[in-house]
Amino acid sequence: MPGARPRELADATTMLLQLAQGESHAEQLLQLHLARLNALQPQLHAASHILREDAMRQWEAVSSGPLTGLPCSLKETIGMAGQPVYAGSNYMRPWVPTRDSPVVTRLKAAGAVIVARGNVPEFAMTAETTSPRHGVTRNPLAPERTAGGSSGGDAALVASGAVAFGIGSDILGSIRIPAACCGVVGFKPSSSAVPKQHSWPQIDGFTDSWLAIGPITRSVRDARLVYQVLAQTALPTVPSLEGLRLIRAEGFPLQTLSPCIDQALAAARKALTVAGMQSEGQCFDEVASLQDLIAPMILHDMQADWYEALESGGRPFHLLAEAWRQLTGRPGIDHGLFVWLLYGATLGRFAIPRSAAHAARLVGRFQTVRELYRDMLGHDGILLLPTMGWLAPPHGEMNRRTLRPGLNRQISPLALCNYADLPAIAVPAWSFADPVSGLPPSLMLVAAPGQEARLLAVAERVEQSVNPC
């Protein structure tokens, strides 16, 4: 198992500089990453597919651009021509795209080389990457612990040094959770910033505006670099943080389980106020009251598609029969997906909207809160919170804790950024690594849409303050 921490590995920006200065060559860089990927895959199960031959063809036709020569990974659910999407399932008939998604087109045009597809939990809907088809992804920092999910494969690949960066997606924390678990940077843009066409799933409903595609990297500057390619935008330089508002979340239903998280948070706050940001308290009472509405909204938009996908491969799927298989240790589907379906068929059926009017009321509740928090942040507000209230837990514990009904105070900061459609970035704090496990806490910064340049500038200042020089 790899011993190097992500902070000890060269980031993508450094690799580009080395290529430009002739200190390394693109083919050598590709071969080194493929060799590392091949060596680590049997231990980490981080890739659903390793694209050895395809990567060499990409390299031979590589374009000159801001990512030229960088080996990267792509979450398995993002469409790539000719590459099957199984969504981690043994039941679903694989979808084989006939053309690249816009994300892939932009990566290739920028010169990146896609060497692997990141492993995902079944249907990419749980916070642990446990795939019945491709195995359980292990955390490169601590193999007995989860890499998080659902973009856990890509986070593990980035953290282990098998790729220069990865591309994930995030509907309830699926970029930021694995980034926090694996000690790397995860940036969830606003939902419309990066095109989602020709990826799986295509959501017909309000929760499509919760879903975003974004980069997983080893530094904030890499996140900026890759985001500008994905979003086809040039972010302006932010010369100073002076006068920006640093939002303190008052009344936030958050509980931290490790002292190192609070220590890192305090250090980041101090660094930002020293940099000239003005601390300001704001109330976040709505977070707790919305918690029990998240699952009904997701199930309203996606449950029917899950059943259709499970039956698309020609094998019959019955929830009661699956319950027996789960109880007898012969599961047909991932346990996390089973819990989602079981909740939808039991307790959830009383909360899931059954009429257009009920659905409209539920959407209206989320829309009101979205407007509230966007107005609160405005053009100059940055919210700082722990990404999660715990460090990467042992395998199985994340799903046991996060799939229970009710408020979970360790992951409460995450979904807020999805249903309010706010850009958010998770940054590791290696200077405050837990003395027992060696795992770093993670801090999350949040801004209003359109304020990505300020968000990333503040995130870079936090990164400098909570990591070794």
Describe this structure in words.
- With 469 residues, the chain is α/β, with parallel strands linked by helices.
- The chain has three domains: 11-231, Amidase signature (AS) domain (Amidase signature (AS) enzymes, Alpha-Beta Complex); 245-284 and 380-465, no CATH class; 289-356, no CATH class.
- The chain contains 15 helices and 15 strands.
- The strands form three sheets. Strands 1-3-2-8-10-9-14-15-13-11-12 form an eleven-stranded mixed β-sheet, with helices on both faces. The protein has a two-stranded antiparallel ribbon with strand order 4-5.
- A hairpin with a 3-residue loop joins strand 4 and strand 5 (135-136).
- The radius of gyration is 21 Å and the shape is globular.
- The mean pLDDT is 96.
Summarize the structure.
The protein has helices at residues 12-20, 26-44, 52-60, 102-109, 152-160, 176-182, 220-231, 259-274, 286-311, 319-327, 335-345, 356-377, 397-402, 412-419, 452-465, and strands at residues 47-50, 71-75, 113-118, 130-131, 135-136, 138-139, 142-146, 165-170, 185-188, 212-217, 245-250, 278-283, 381-386, 424-428, 442-446. The chain has 469 residues and is α/β, with parallel strands linked by helices.
Largest sheet: 11 strands, mixed
Q: What is the name of the CATH topology of the largest domain? A: Amidase signature (AS) enzymes
Using only CA atoms, what is the Rg? Answer: 21 Å
* Average predicted local confidence, pLDDT: 96
Structural class: alpha/beta
Number of strands: 15
Number of helices: 15
Task: Give the CATH level 1 class of the largest domain.
Answer: Alpha Beta
- Domains (count): 3
Strand order of the largest sheet: 1-3-2-8-10-9-14-15-13-11-12
As a percent range, the share of strand residues is: 5-15%
Low-confidence stretches at least 5 residues in length (pLDDT < 50)? none
Q: In sequence order, what are the helices and strands, one letter per element?
A: HHEHEHEEEEEHEHEEHEHEHHHHEHHEEH
Which shape, going by the Cα principal axes? Answer: globular
CATH superfamily of the largest domain: Amidase signature (AS) domain
CATH architecture title of the largest domain: Alpha-Beta Complex
**Helix content estimate:** 25-40%
Give the terminus-to-terminus CA distance: 25 Å
